[in-house]
Each structure stands twice: as C-alpha cells, then as structure tokens.
Amino acid sequence: MATKSLAGQDVEVDAEGFLVDASQWNEDMARAMAKEDGIDELTDKHMQVINFMRNEYMAKGSAPNIRSLGKTSGVSIKELYQLFPKGPAKLAAKFAGIPKPHGCI
Amino acid sequence: MTENNEAEPISKVSIVISKGSLEGVYPGLIMANGARAEGIDANLFFTFFGMDAVHKKHWKNMKVATVGNPGLHIPTLIGAIPGMSSLVTRMMSSKIEKLDFPSIPEFIEMISDTGAGIYACLASADLFGYTKDDLVDQVEGIITVGEFYTMAAGGQIIFT
After folding, report:
1. Of A55, B28, B39, B66, whose Cβ has the fewest other Cβ atoms within 10 Å?
2. Do A66 and B114 touch (CB under 8 A)?
3. What pTM does this model have?
4. Domains of chain A, first to last
5. What is the Cα–Cα distance from A53 to A59, expressed in whole angstroms?
6. Following DSSP, what letter does each residue of B118-139 receive, concatenated?
7. B interface mutation test: which of A1, A36, A39, A67 has the most B CBs within 10 A?
8. For residue range B44-98, what is the model confidence (pLDDT) as tens digits?
C-alpha cells in the first residue's frame, strides 16, 4: 500500500497502482492513471469500457474478465486490445478505480 | 502470494503446444490468453499433435486422453474401452462450460483477437501432409523452427 497524488487528490493504491477505495474515484483520476500507463487521451470509447467495468463491479462485486467484457460491453475483444494494448480488463479496471479482475481466463 | 518486485517483468512469451489432447491444449491457451491480458506479448506455436487444435477438421473434436493418463484416476484397461475417451471428454467439457471457460475454437479465436501470433510448425505440417488450407484462418503461417526462434527472441519460451 502506498499513498499517491492523483488528479490533485491523495489516494491509497496497491503495488500495481489500483485504488484501494473505489469510492475515492473520479474521471480525472482515470485520465491521470491512463497517462501514467501510456494512454495520453481517454476517448469516449475508452470511457464507455471504463464506466461499464465500474458499473459491473458496483452491481456484482466483481469486474468482468476480458472474455465477458468482449461479450457484454458492446466493444469487441479486438477493439478492446486496440484501446488498451497493455491488457484491456486489467487497465480498464485500474482506470475505473476498481480491483483487478480475478481469474485465469 | 509472494511478490518479487526486484525482478524484471516478463514482456514476451512464446508458447509451444505439442500435445493433441484436450488437457494438453488448454494450459497453453490459458497461458497465452493470460499473458495478453497482462499486457505481455504472446506467440502460440502449434507443433506435432498439438496442430489438431488449429486444424479445421479436428479443432472442435479435441478429446481427453483416457489411456496412459494416470491423473485421470481411471485404470488403463477401463480407459481403453471404446467410447470412454468421448464420455470423459463430454464430462470434462460440461465442467469446463460450467466454469465459463471458452471451448477450444472460441479460445483460439479470442487469443487471435488479442493480437497474439498463432503459427504452425513446418516439420509437423510436412509430416501430416497439412497445408495452410487445412488449418483455421487464425493461423498466420506455417513456419520453421528457425523462424520460431527468431520470433521468440527477447522473450521466454514455454513448451507444453
């Protein structure tokens, strides 16, 4: 655990930079985290995926893996990898301020 | 969980799938898909009987080996009864489906969509008389072992 400043607010993050408390999140933090991970600008499409991840997590208590993200988010797996080349489910969860999806698939 | 933050993170893996059974193919697919999900570059290389997983006629019909497979805990002579492999495969496939794992064809399509490279082995293709047309569209090429090593340069190689 470490404290870091994201979009002007001090938040607690884990070793991989995921927010510890999802309720501290806002969209400016998503943009700041994306920049750190090499995505300079979050487009509407990025935000669609990020908000979808966040809503799923809030509704179900866990974030979808890449397979169900491809099936249910309205964005195909191919496109997801174009949007988030370094791992769509992982990065979209991170930018959404929720825990990393758990599971092997 | 033990974490070693000092170690250099893995940035690329090349995974060889050489077995032609259901249980021989899944681990390599899970590792390739998992690598891409972590942002790690991945190549899949199908060789020998592993090529069935990317063969148009066989990829939907991969079976669990019921003979010579002590992990299954079925005596070899029982495992050899005709139809046993299909039965065990059906049981395992239904379990796999319940866990919401993709089937082998869906998994290979998915891995291809993640941007991983999928290749088949030239020596094996020659041995079985397969051409590119016999293999599913996700296979980008039939390559030599030398080309495989060139492609794998700078990453880890995993043989399954």
Report:
1. A55
2. yes
3. 0.90
4. 2-95 (1.10.10.370)
5. 10
6. EEEEHHHHHHHT--GGGB-TT-
7. A67
8. 999 999 999 999 999 998 999 888 888 889 888 888 999 999 999 999 888 888 8
Between helices B84-98 and B22-37, what is the axis angle to 10°?
20
CATH number for the domain that contains residue B51: 3.40.1260.10
Cβ contact B37:A86 at 8 Å: no
The burial of A100, by beta-carbon neighbours within 10 Å (0-12 exposed, 13-18 middle, 19 or more buried), is given as: middle
Compute the nearest-CA separation of B111 from chain A (Å): 9
Domain that residue B33 falls in: 12-65+104-159
Beta bridge partner(s), residue B16: B45, B159
Query: What total number of domains does chain B contain?
Result: 1
- Provide, as residue numbers in chain A, all residues whose Cβ is less than 8 Å from the Cβ of B100: 67-68, 105
A38 catalytic? Reply is no
- B29, two tokens: 């697919």
Q: Determine the Cα–Cα distance for residues A59 and A8; give it in Å rounded to an integer.
A: 28
Q: Which SS3 state, helix, strand or coil, does residue B152 take?
A: helix
How far, in Å, CA of B113 to CA of B86, rounded? Answer: 30
